[in-house]
Fold each of these.
Amino acid sequence: MKIGSPKDFWGGIIFAVIGLMFAIIARGFAIGGNVLLAGYTMGTPARMGPGFFPFWLGVILLVLGAVISTAALRSAPGAEGSRLERFHWKELFFVLGSICLFGILLKPIGMLLAGMLLIVGASFGSVTFHFRKSLLLGLFLVTFCALVFVMGLKLPIPLCPDIDALQSFGLCRA
Amino acid sequence: MELLQHLGTGFEIAFTWHNILYCLVGCLLGTLIGVLPGIGPVATIAMLLPATFVLHPVSALIMLAGIYYGAQYGGSTTAILVNLPGEVSSVVTCLDGYQMARRGMAGKALGISALGSFFAGTVATILIAGFAPPLAELALKFGPSDYFSLMVLGLIAAVVLAHGSLLKAIAMIILGLLCGLIGTDVNSGVARYSFNLPELIDGINIGTVAMGVFGFSEIIRNLEQGEAREVFTKSIKGLLPNWSDIKQSAPAVVRGTILGSALGILPGGGPILGAFSAYTLEKKLSKDPSRFGKGAIEGVAAPESANNAAAQTSFIPLLTLGIPCTPTMALMIGAMIIHGIQPGPQIMTSRPDLFWGMIASMWIGNLLLVVLNLPLIGIWVKLLTVKYDYLFPAILIFCCVGVYSINNAPFDVLLAALFGFIGYVFIKFSMEPAPLLLGFVLGPMMEENLRRALLLSRGDPSVFFTRPISLTLLIIAALLLVIVMAPSIAKKREEVFVEG
């Protein structure tokens, strides 16, 4: 069977799955007598437990997702903008990967180095990437951030690698 | 007369040298990011939240507000000169603004949009000062059930006025509400959806979500699309419109201001809708509609006044009810909470300095923007020639440093990357991220008010239909839904957005 609007169909499925997960976690999960997931107390409408609101929201999302998907199955195929768009994994990988790297390495190696990695790494995601230019840009931006955010606004961001010898160095402390 | 007295106090606060300075900084930053396509006020305000820790709360909010309406001014520059909306709300300005620039009237288009915006800003400031106090007084009578219904109305209105599929937008709101519930439940102390991660126990900060969904995913999308720009830099002279231009555009400015102000107050309305409607109205009223799209000066004046008016009146629900109507306002709530201010109707009485100071600063900000922007236009134009290859790493590192600094938590950076991925997936499935952010802020508030309402009524849901305020709000919400579902209107609604 041909799906009328694949974009809406899969979008609806995503919503339905997320809704189901939220609802299950709120409700808890048990097979036979074994409680696999405790869930949150549901309570009564008058005395709502922590599970009540998220459970019903999850159910609503599940239903909405199902409705969106069913409607997409029935809609006329070939409408403009109904096809699935291509994911650009390369851009996605370099940009988000560098951000994650920055998050993981910020405390151990400090903002100066982690920032350089972030900028050079993310620049790989651009088609018109230029290694030397991104290195220079990185140096400029890292210095700028250090001056404005750490020296100027006194935000407690670690600048240098987390090594005792370096931490006693004056420039590494704001 | 009381109004004048209040405004007097406001100006006293706003006219101190450091508040003028922060207002100026906010306006300049706002114009900057408004001019640059690919970064908007939401990501910028999220980025700067931690930087305002050191400031006095009034100065901080004055600066953040300046970013928001400054962006409306900046966005038009890009729209006129590059045919790219620097800001989403200036999409409509591209239509006639760019055509004016191609015909050598770039200066005139820039001039009229700045002057129109200033007029709109002035009117909107007066409107806020006049309308906010009675509204806040009314809001004090609101019970939990009324608040719940109001939020339902707000969310429904946000969906109705957004473009794209209604169901998808509602689903995005629900998803936002659910994400907002992550973290410790205040009533029972249970850590919900935290997966035993200590970092999630306090919930997710709105800045993290905003930066991921609006900052990171936008960057990836821009990178995959590549860029091609044609900037009109040569023909910018004669910024001041002459008498016949003014005569031609003055009615458009006035109509745009009225329409924009009205739509800005509506939940979910905001500048985008104001600009669209003002443009459509001018086209309908014009004796010769064929001029539109070919460089009609009204086609610039009306939407520019409307988006600026709407940007300012959207502060009304925030300041009087504590309810955000746009993602930017959701972030302003985040900023208030960071500074220990509980948003809501009591702000006006408990923090008159904040309330009136902010309002007065908006007018000063608008004045600064006109005085600064026209002479500085050359600098903004130069900025437009900066390549995205230089721009996006800068946005990235500021965002990362910003996310980290909100809680000094490296984990938040990873979380923002996750939301960046989610945002990118949503873009690919043509789902608007804005309703998600609104739901995210309203999630805990809605649950709390639902709980209280049902606790007071001993579990009887009819409380939402017996209280007059609540009933009225729910009826309006239902009407809105019915109207939009009606086939004839649904078709019209598509047309309005296609025309843009």
Amino acid sequence: MLIFERGQAGRRAVAQAPSTTDDLHDIPAALQRKQKPLLPEVGEMQVVRHYTNLSRKNFSIDTHFYPLGSCTMKYNPRGAHRAAMQAGFLGRHPLAHESISQGFLACLYELQEVLKGVTGMKGVSLTPMAGAQGEFAGVAMIRAYHEARKDHERKEILIPSAAHGTNPATAVMCGYKVREIPVNDEGDVDVDALRDAVGPQTAGLMMTNPSTCGVFERSVREIAEIVHAAGGLLYYDGANLNAILGKVRPGDMGFDVMHMNLHKTFATPHGGGGPGAGPVGVGERLLPYLPIPMVGKDEIEGKPRYRWLTEADIPQTIGRLSTFMGNAGVLLRAHYYASVLGREGLLRVGEFSTLNANYLMKKVQDAGFQLAYPKRRATHEFIITLNKQAKELHVSAMDFAKRILDYGYHAPTTYFPLLIPECWLIEPTETESRDELDGFVKAMVQIQAEAENNPELVRGAPYSQPVRRLDDVRAARELDLVWRPTAEQ
Amino acid sequence: MPYVPHTDEDVRIMLDTIGVASIDALFDEIPAEIRAKPLLEIPSGRTEMDVTRLVGERAAADGNVINFLGAGAYEHHIPAAVWDIISRGEFMTAYTPYQAEASQGTLQVIYEFQSLMAHLTAMDVSNASLYDGGSALAEAALMAVRANRKSQSGRVLVLENVNPFYCDAARNIVGNQHIEIVKVPFDATTGNVDQAALDAYAGQDFAALVVAMPSFFGTLEDVHALTDWAHANRMLMVAVVNPTALAVLTPPGEWGQKGADIVVGEGQPLGVPLSSGGPYVGFICCRNEIVRQLPGRIIGRTVDLEGKRGFTLTLQAREQHIRRSKATSNICTNQGLAMAAATIYLSLLGAEGLARVAQACHANTRKLIASLSEIPGVSVAHQSAFFHEAVLRLPKNAAEVVAALAEQRIAGGLALGEFFPDHENALLVCATEMRNDADIARYQAALRQILA
């Protein structure tokens, strides 16, 4: 039932709105609303019950193992939520004077420093509001760099074929053409193809490492040299930073610019699809172009004094990308997380996410499933292909994914990367225990048996969820995006 | 170690299963010469208790400020139920609803949000939200250029009294696609558009006209005439609106003869705290005819294989994970949590409650500017109808006044000198329903003293 359908004309939550009404005599009648908007007419308890019950129709990290590859669904510490939800931070206006904002600015400054440390970058701006906006900021900086050098012929961004869809979409938003570079059958970029592709038209290369194939790009130094020698810059997509935290830094691999997904690596809640935060880090060459605002620190009479850095400080900045300063609440949660973990804890993120993935990969392989890259180490994630099941049993990767919901596990990422047929990308994260991983393998084995003995059962899944499989074709063909009373049966 | 549950025994069993001697051996594909050294520049970890105390002190240091500052972010009462529900792990720690059957909660909330926003703006459809108001304006400009097939110029006209932060963000986001934002000046006496300056663009090729209601100065334009002007000149009408105001002001779908084509704005006033600037929630609505140009995530209602009603991601062929370089935008999330807060807020308030909030804001702002105008040398800058903000002219540099007010823990407004020439003494103020007579009296006393 929709919240609209729970209403009765004239019912309302009285205590939540001002008790007085006021005429609007000084606003011209032509600008006043004639007909009230069609909002629900419900009481407070109805609202609480409605949304509490809706929440129970979700899988979440707090309720289920959620091994969604490339999304890093690790535990989101409650302490971080509480820290960010304090009255002093929540009530602070984004344009409040610096003299009454020192607490907030101190947290942001410290976060900038931690992110520089773990990435090996020289400067960090926290302002991008999501990974995709971080990508945008990064590629816009690459463009600003070439333009400042009057190097106007560089019109192309190189992207490995397995990349996230945001990479090519971002390059186009920044005014570039995209050229794809193939990936070889061990998951590495085809270095010879890259060598053939670079030239005076190359603005840069966007790369994820560990790659979207779930393996570490072993030729990364060589790739960096080839792109740099051609005059291009290297962009690091931080989607998989969790795997290498404390083990190897993008700055040391040769990257010039990167974004981090704090909602992945720094454990801030995914919120059902946002808000995230996608800070950008840069090496020496791109420092003048970082997006604003950033936070600077001065010493006044031996005491730190934090302030916003704006165009006046960074005249060549690519500018502001949000109304104010970005997703502050997400940044505060990441600051808390980094403070609790410290350098030892951050190192263990990389270690234990990699341990869990390699353990799970071995167990899955021992159970008879086909790995996409059996000769490689897993990073924090790995890929299996259910191509054989699809061909021989006519049970697809999507069928397996729907069925595992019935076993109480969120499905891994399906059909990504696109170059592996019928694939699952599995990322357990460091916060899961060995027993949880063992339980997941057990469920996979059982589904395999079902696929062999009773494939219809798997093809019809799920059975345990609020709805059965949904008709996506009808959703797109008979668009119903807004509830209207006339549309009701 | 924090948030990692492994015992030594677990680690031993796991390494044995994999067949390696140490965790470090799992990183043997990383070339040795680039392996990281210990991260000595990062401090050691601390306990929950220690970090909570540290950030608690910092939050307290920034707290207890009384707000007369708006300029795109507004302090409203947020019913307790809103964030109690949002903070449930099932909403907080879920992700993008790719597995629709296991995400019906999030999906239905988005469908309800889309419905609420469409009704509030009187438009046909809404998406699942964008990052914030500024980036929503950028997406609206891009969308208008795609959707207006009569226009080839890639230029968009924007009234200069649209929030300058929005304009900045939009220009920085769309600029690399050769889309130009051209500003139309305002009339200094009204704060509204300089009609003669606008008329100079009549007949020229622009994809859209962008008009805000209320304007950045709080004033109310003749949106009906502007909408008809845009359409007469083959431009799409893009409305930038405050959602609270829409409870009492004409919704963009009813502007002029044909209504606005695209509507964007900042949803923060709907149950999202000021929270230092984010996460907020941008919204974008449009007419049915151009829904396929709408960026970002969209949820549709459908049925399952037993005919039962359900919700799913739809029109995904516009999106980056399918279309890659041909996508309408690179966006791949919405602002899920803040969007859910807005949904619950609007459900609790209803049309009557939201109208009362809007009326109280308007009444308080009227009181505020009347009270402050009693101070010698202080006057109201614009002779126009306003919603819940207004510009005051001070006898002194406004930035200095704001700094002095901050010492008394009053956020007194936004000094406009930084944004507009000849506005060094102009101060943009706001009073929402949260301000009472005592707050206004305190502000008046403080300002009187500073200006004395």
